[in-house]
Specification:
The chain is an alpha/beta fold and about 290 residues long. The protein has a domain of about 180 residues: TIM Barrel, CATH 3.20.20.140. It has 10 helices and 8 strands. β5, α8 and β6 form a beta-alpha-beta unit. The longest helix is centred in the middle third of the chain and has 27 residues.
Length: about 290
Amino acid sequence: MINFKTAAPNIEYADLHIHTSASDGDFSPEQVIKLCADLEIKTISITDHDTVSGVMPAAKAGRKVGVSVVPGVELGTNADDLEIHILGYFIDIKSTALNHYLTEINEQRLRRTELIVESLARHGIEINLDKIIDKAGNGTIGRPHIAKAMVEAGVVQSYQAAFNNWIGDGAPACEKKSRQEPAELIEVIHQSGGAAVLAHPGNQWTGESIRQLKRLGLDGIEVVHPRHTKKMEAAYRKLAFECNLFITGGSDFHTLKRKVNPLGKYKIDVTSVKRLKKHCERRIDAKY
């Protein structure tokens, strides 16, 4: 991959998949902007899980240092044994439909956390729920916060061990997340004026499955991602062309501790971002 600082001088790039401490990232929105500015990344999207609370702080900080922030979000569900994540880009973060949806989802997230804590207790592992809530702060609560609390309590040696042995999918203390239909995720993004993009499909998606999401209104595919091999990337580019889907990409940045997805290494040409924005503007114009 091309580093931002060594990229061709006449080409601008964008990293459209970044998480902050508003969900499960290690850095505040303001800190993320500083990291991006230091790497000379000029266009990013804040795509926290089930929250848009990091968008405005990032945009405000970005304006001071020349980093443009695309308002985004990452929504998730399960269907037919597939974990589905849909990225929303150029959303109106004040959208009534979007915020109503996010309020409901975060209530479900808290309930799932409570159930996991209760399940851990049945296995003899006592974790203080209030400490997990404090750890999440104003962000979306989830299993990463439980894992960190388990490490701090000394019941596991590492964050990954918490997932592997206790709270990961299929592990003894895991509780299933609430399920929404993929069409609902796509629709709420469209209602907020945004574009719906399938996140990091990896090797679990068939062409027909993605075509089915296209029929539900999917706008694009995240082709560039740390989990994708060159072969996967080429296949998804081809499929996007065949299905008339937009191409996006990003680092899925959470922390500097993961060497596999350093901030800014995985990116797309900013021209693709402009095309996606124009698509959203045309959809909004068509309503009036």
